[in-house]
Amino acid sequence: MANIATEIPSLKLNDGNTIPLLSFGTGTAWYKSSNDTKVDRKLIETIKTAIKMGYYHLDAAEIYGTELEVGVAISESKVEREKLFVTTKVSNGIKDIPKAFQASLEKLKLDYVDLYLIHAPFFAESDAELQTAWAAMEQIHQSGKAKSIGVSNYFPKHLEATLKTATIVPSINQIEYHPYLQHSDLIAFHKKHKIATAAYAALTSVTKAKPGPIDGYMNVLAEKYYVSEGEIALRWCIDQGIVAVTTSGKEARLSDYLRATTFKLTPKEVQDIAERGEGKHYRGFWQAKFDANDRS
């Protein structure tokens, strides 16, 4: 297990707030079905461990069913609220965002969140529905209870529709992002409008998408920097100014992931990973929404 004292770097958002570039996520392996009301004590203890290790950015969501555990862990950790960056997302409650947001705050036991996201755009059957939802998000931001607001799983067409009537540009778009799903057009759109990118499933290329064309090169880089391929994958995001969301139930693995903060890839190495990654396409989430060969 690594003993890492390096602070996780941050990124300034378009609203002036800063977000840590490495986040502890409470989805995927921690996901609970809507009828599972049991409190997950293991998750609470893991979050407390993560906080103690320096993971101050906690990523939650209404649909994960884990906001309660995040709230308990924050309370029990006794950490100063100002040190934390808490993200959560609305999905099931999209038809009444203010009500859903208040329910999330109560589960989290917080007076505010640092970042509130619309979890996905697929609820909308028209541009007007996207615009109405975003107007509700803007009201929450103006209340001061969400310091930053953004979206998740949006594509250029969703962002274009939202921006037509927005008074606040989304601060960030959290998407599946890794060398085998690079969303070149979407990332270009983000940069044009100063929308930050967050990556979930950042480890996909070195885990469930193996084998692939980056395998050998990732191994070479791991040996060069004395880290694992997973830490190379996380650093690849960080060196592009992209927030990497990851998780684990193992303290040793969480400790090792922090090694991604102790080195930097060269610009050429970042580019080389990207170029090799174009040799394969892999989408781990929302497959039903896309053609098998759709790289958007």
Number of strands: 10
Basic shape: globular
Instruction: Report strand %.
Output: 15-25%
Compute the CA-based radius of gyration: 18 Å
| Poorly predicted regions | none
Distance between the termini: 38 Å
H/E order of the elements?
A: EEEHEHEHEHEHEHEHHEHH
Determine the mean pLDDT: 93
Share of helical residues: 25-40%
Number of helices: 10
The largest sheet, given as strand count, sense and whether it forms a barrel, is: 8 strands, parallel, barrel
Strands in their spatial order, largest beta sheet: 3-4-5-6-7-8-9-10
Question: What structural class should be given to the helix and strand makeup?
Answer: alpha/beta
Brief summary of the model shown:
With 296 residues, this protein is α/β, with parallel strands linked by helices. Helix content is 38%, strand content 16%.
Polypeptide structure, described:
With 296 residues, the protein is an alpha/beta fold. Helices cover 38% and strands 16% of the residues. It has ten helices and ten strands. It has an eight-stranded parallel beta barrel with strand order 3-4-5-6-7-8-9-10, surrounded by five helices. Helix 1 packs across helix 2 (67-77), helix 4 (127-143) packs across helix 5 and helix 7 (215-225) crosses helix 8 (229-238). The chain starts with 9 loop residues before the first strand and ends in a 19-residue tail after the last helix. The mean pLDDT is 93.
